[in-house]
Design brief:
With 203 residues, this protein is α+β, with helices and mostly antiparallel strands. It has 2 domains: 39-76, no CATH class; 79-203, no CATH class. The chain is built from 6 helices and 11 strands. The strands form 3 sheets. The chain has a 7-stranded antiparallel sheet with strand order 3-6-7-11-10-9-8. A two-stranded antiparallel sheet has the order 1-2.
């Protein structure tokens, strides 16, 4: 084998290794073009769009009034912000709501609500992106009359965080998906323990 051929073979080997590594790279954890860990300022224009959609027709007619409303909207709920309606379409699935959870000025989580009859379709979309769930359990939920129903709970434990999907959530007919980073979960747990400690000390 000539020196030229050896160089060519070595180069092709490097290309194949790089291509293989790229193919095995895990998808970023997030929703559409919003990913966990993104600075809030990077999606400021998206959040402002969501606020403008929530404004009344009268507020939209006055630019100054609209600007004040958007500022109020972003400040009134700085930790849970509604995404624009264009984010509520996932393939053929129309979501009931799509929200961003913000912590320390970064995207810490994404919360989606959907109709239960779209549960299987959303599960298929998540499995296509993240593979099979890490855990699959069934919990029992009750309606207001005390009747019991099974509710499947799926969990994907990934490098950046977790994806939790519940078949039945705030009501029997609503499913939910919660995508959260480990950093967000750790801080939320520390804050919960801190509040519990203060409450105990106040007894």
């Amino acid at each position: 084998m000539t020196r030229t051929w050896r160089i060519l073979v070595a180069t092709l080997g490097i290309i194949l290794l790089a291509t293989s590594a790229w193919a095995q790279e895990k998808p970023r954890l997030g929703f559409k073009d919003i990913y966990l860990g993104m600075p809030k300022v990077a999606i400021q224009h998206i959040l402002e769009e969501g606020c403008r959609e929530q404004a009344t027709a009268a507020q939209r007619t006055e630019p100054e009034v609209m600007a004040r409303y958007v500022s109020w909207c972003l400040a009134s709920s700085p930790l849970i912000l509604q995404l624009p309606r264009r984010y509520e379409l996932v393939g053929s699935i129309s979501l009931l709501s799509a929200k961003v959870l913000v912590k320390d000025e970064k995207v810490g989580g994404i919360h989606l609500e959907l109709r239960r009859h779209d549960y299987d379709g959303m599960q298929a979309a998540l499995e296509e992106k993240y593979g099979r769930p890490t855990n699959r359990t069934v919990e029992v939920v009750k309606n207001k009359l005390g009747a019991e129903f099974n509710s499947e709970v799926l969990t994907w434990e990934l490098k950046e965080g977790t994806v939790l999907m519940k078949e039945r959530s705030s009501s029997l007919d609503i499913s939910e998906v919660l995508i959260t980073s480990y950093a967000f979960l750790d801080k939320a747990e520390k804050e919960r323990k801190s509040r519990a400690k203060k409450d105990a000390e106040g007894l």
